[in-house]
Design a protein that fits this description.
Shape: elongated
Strand order of the largest sheet: 1-2-3
Number of strands: 3
Distance between the termini: 68 Å
Largest sheet: 3 strands, antiparallel
Strand content: 15-25%
Radius of gyration: 24 Å
Number of helices: 7
Order of helices and strands: HHHHHEEEHH
């Protein structure tokens, strides 16, 4: 165990624990940690540098999160509202509401958001979203969709 730690300085106790299991040595992860600690082997730099919350805080300017919520109007019509939260400012933007959201509607709303952010001097590099089918062509708010690329290619080939 100590030899693995010395020969592989980037490995932490969890990786060493996993390698020991592959070798058929059954030992608890906490035991591996204690043995390394007792031997004076420091934790790996990867485990002591950036935590997930610290990473999210440092990237908050580039991480908008979007999702739909449903509301009912006074006359009983159900609407799907697309909203985005900018984590750095905690500003919520309502991109639109529709009774029947489609992929093209979501794509256009994302493009509008990208233009608004660009006008404000900000960029949404890593949008957080769920796996809803309506986001199918939205990898980032500013990226062209495959449908728009293929339609522009078709119109260019017709010319």
């Amino acid at each position: 165990m100590l030899r693995l730690a010395r020969e592989n300085p980037a490995w932490g106790y969890r990786r060493i624990h996993g390698e020991l299991i592959v070798l058929g040595i059954k030992v608890a992860a906490s035991t591996v940690w204690q043995i390394l600690q007792d031997a004076g082997i420091e934790p790996t730099p990867e485990r002591t540098t950036t935590t997930w919350p610290a990473f999210l805080r440092s990237q908050a300017d580039a991480l908008p999160a979007c999702d739909f919520f449903e509301t009912t109007t006074l006359n009983g019509t159900r609407l799907h509202v697309l909203a985005v939260i900018e984590h750095a400012s905690r500003r919520i933007r309502v991109l639109g509401a529709t009774a029947h959201p489609t992929t093209s509607w979501v794509t256009q709303a994302a493009r509008n958001l990208a233009m608004d952010l660009d006008d404000a001097g900000r960029h949404a590099r890593f949008p957080i979203r769920d796996r809803d089918g309506k986001y199918r062509h939205c990898s980032t708010p500013s990226s062209p969709t495959p449908a728009s690329r293929s339609s522009s290619a078709e119109s260019a080939s017709r010319a």
